[in-house]
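Appendix B. Chain record.
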Amino acid sequence: MSFRGLADFLLHPATISLAVHLALVIGLCVRVIMRRRPTGVTMSWLLLIAGIPYLGGLAYLLIGERRIGRSRAAGLLDLRKAFRTHSAGLLAPGVLPVDVSSDRSPIASISRMGERLTGCPLVGGSRLELFRDTEGILTRIARDIDGAQASVAMEFYIWNAGGRGDEVLEALIRAAERGVRCQVLVDALGARAWWKGDQPARLRGAGVELVEALPVGLFRTVVGRTDLRLHRKIVVIDRAVAWIGSMNLVDPKFFKQDAGVGQWIDAMVRVEGVAIAPLLTVLMGDLSLETAQPLAELLDPYGLPKIAPRGDAKLQVIPSGPGQNGDALLQMIVASVHAAQEQLVLTTPYLIPDESLLAALRAAAARGVDVDLIVPEKVDSLLTRHACRSYFDELLEAGVRIRLFRGGLLHTKSIRIDHDLAIFGTVNLDMRSFWLNYEVALVINDRDFVAALRDLHESYLRQCDELDRVAWSSRGVGSRLVQNTLRLASPLL
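Structure tokens predicted for this chain:
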């Protein structure tokens, strides 16, 4: 080839495009590998970057890393360092964490892990009440707000107008108008439709301090990922009552009625006593990040009495999220699954486990633990539905019983381990909850609560069909191909 021919070849647009693509692939692949993330996540990104010219690389730059921005990262670091101090400052004198330093039991080991990962120790002195009636939950929250004397603080991922959700709205407006300080944090993307309606203006007009969590936009895309979401659901009233669980501020009769999955089924826990302190600290920490108000000022101004013990339940509040404490909830869940000796029951709307959780579930079943996994028969995302089902084969082969709930979209996130340990909160058993969302859960060591959770699980099981291993293994090649293909993208869903 002549020099001119070589120059024409090298300067040809196709050659330049190929060279740029190869340079982009090599550079981004090195970056992906050096991040040392789970193998499945790494391989998915490598395939996407190499297989889809330019668009794969662009997708990685937009959502491939948990970019949270420098200022938020610094704020989260400060909150983590001060979490225990601020939480303890809300408690009455003499209220101390449960001492598990010399306890060698599995539950004590799990508690020590949670304290090391999050700064939140195991605390006693709480009373827990499990609520399963979704309409009744909203009405009871509204009633608690109507009894507020000084403060109401709330955070939710989704707020949807209509039905019993409006009872909570009206209760907040009444509380603000009588002088109660009301602070509400709602995710910008999860409640996108609600933010465009008239209810936010009504709340602000009444004096409610309404804040949009993790706003989205072009600038936010540059400095951090826009799909990192505040998935927590917490209500704290007068430091006397708190609520936590899977339920967004929505009436299921008015929410996603056209999705073809039935009504959403949720559960919440009403908390009194010592556990309110860490829950309020988590909530106010989120508010501090969005408003730049110091956490100490947000926790101080109410003039309310210190939180005293109420009840005998022992538990840990475990927050988790990008820049906060990484995969704390995932580690706690995996450790709890490994601790199971007799029975393990899990409920989740979305099942996309990472390799460590999948291995733990299979190992539990293999060593003789009765493992029941309750998932909805239908979910609101077609891609997620197929990706979830790709995990059924190996779970069924290991002896895990998979129960398909047919009474609606089962949205409760709960785990029951034997007779005295439970995990209950906002975290799904999927990659998004473990790595991208800001979540919170209670790790509960209380036989009475575990018994109440068992009753709830049994009510779910009565509305389930058990997936037959033989019938499932005989499904068509087309279904297998779709499910296994989407499994490759499951770390990204």
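Further analysis of this model is presented in Appendix C.
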